[in-house]
Each structure stands twice: as C-alpha cells, then as structure tokens.
Design a protein that fits this description.
Layout lengths: L1 H20 L8 H4 E3 L21 E5 L7 E4 L2 E5 H4 L1 E4 L2 E8 L6 E7 L4 E4 L10
Parallel strand pairs: 2-8
Antiparallel strand pairs: 1-5, 2-5, 3-4, 3-6, 6-7
Length: about 130
C-alpha cells in the first residue's frame, strides 16, 4: 500500500512538468490552440487515421467545396479551408466561422472532445449580387 501511495505521489508531481513540456501553459491565442494536419484524413475509425492525434486533443475536419473560404476560430483568423483541411484543437467550446467572397457566411459553435473527430459540412451558398 505504501509503494502505491509513493507511486501516486510521484505521478502527481510530474503532471505540471508534462503540461509545460507540451506547451500548454500560458498560451491563449487561437493560432496556438490549433495545429493543421498535412496528411490525408481517412473516413475510417480514428485508429487508422494517418494524421496523428494528440492524447488530449480532438480534430475538426472541414468538408466544403469552397476551398478558398477563410476560417476563423473564436474570431481569430486561422487560414483557408485549403490550408487547414483538418485542425487539431484542445478540448473545449469553439466558434468556427467560414467566410468567402460572394458566399453566405457559416458559423457554428462546437465542442471538441479529446480523441474524437467532428466533421463540419458547411454549405456556403452563393449570394446574388445586388
């Protein structure tokens, strides 16, 4: 029992060091919250996905035909759909917004769960010229 308590205390003492090593302390900008995936994303289960997932992160996949749409995460510019494709975000609530010239805006509030992928299928219909 004593060994178990010592092991638990040692593990608890290491937790702040692990968080700091992952760069998760004191960062609040939207760009630091996301990492873009560069590998193609499979439609199968997460275990076969070639894009590596962090243990404490979830993925948001953007599936739209308007590839030049600008992506904003919580109001901060993150890139275009073509650049991002799949974003890896920490667990939490985010507002994802897509804007493209000549198209209707898309905004959705999502909740990212660690180890899960959310696929957004925004329909950005063309807006008729006035």
């Amino acid at each position: 029992m004593r060994k178990l308590m010592l092991l638990a205390a040692a593990f608890a003492a290491m937790l702040p060091y692990q968080a700091a090593a992952r760069g998760r302390m004191g960062c609040s900008s939207a760009r630091s919250l996301l990492r873009t995936g560069t590998a193609p994303v499979s439609t199968g289960p997460m275990a076969t996905d070639p894009t590596p997932l962090r243990r404490n992160a979830g993925q948001v996949k953007l599936d739209t035909k308007v590839k030049d749409a600008q992506v904003f995460v919580d109001g901060s510019y993150a890139g275009t759909v073509r650049q991002l494709k799949t974003m890896t975000l920490r667990p939490g609530t985010y507002t994802i917004e897509l804007r493209a010239a000549g198209h209707a805006r898309y905004a959705e509030k999502i909740y990212v769960i660690a180890g899960k992928r959310i696929t957004l299928n925004p329909d950005l219909p063309p807006v008729p010229a006035p």
